[in-house]
Amino acid sequence: MTKAAPLTLYGRAWCHLCDDMRAALEPLLAEFGVQVEVVDVDSDPVLEARYNELVPVLLCDGVELCHYHLDAMRVRAALAARIARTAATP
Hints:
Layout: E1 7-11, H1 16-32, E2 36-40, H2 45-51, E3 57-60, E4 63-67, H3 72-88
Parallel strand pairs: 1-2
Antiparallel strand pairs: 1-3, 3-4
Helix pairs in contact: 1-3
């Protein structure tokens, strides 16, 4: 199976919603064989300003899929579309 591009999860170390989203992502990561890059917004003032009260924020290919809570259907659709595009590219 073609692997999808990694997801990016912007969050905070002390954020329980971030922990919840990361745990909820695990089955999708296994299903699609992808990794998630976790970025602490508090480590970068630009990211902190951008995502401050929205964390956790999940992106795929730079497109925001969801924030606060995992939208599994949207994430699954984005990963499936990414795999289809990759498979169609010669």
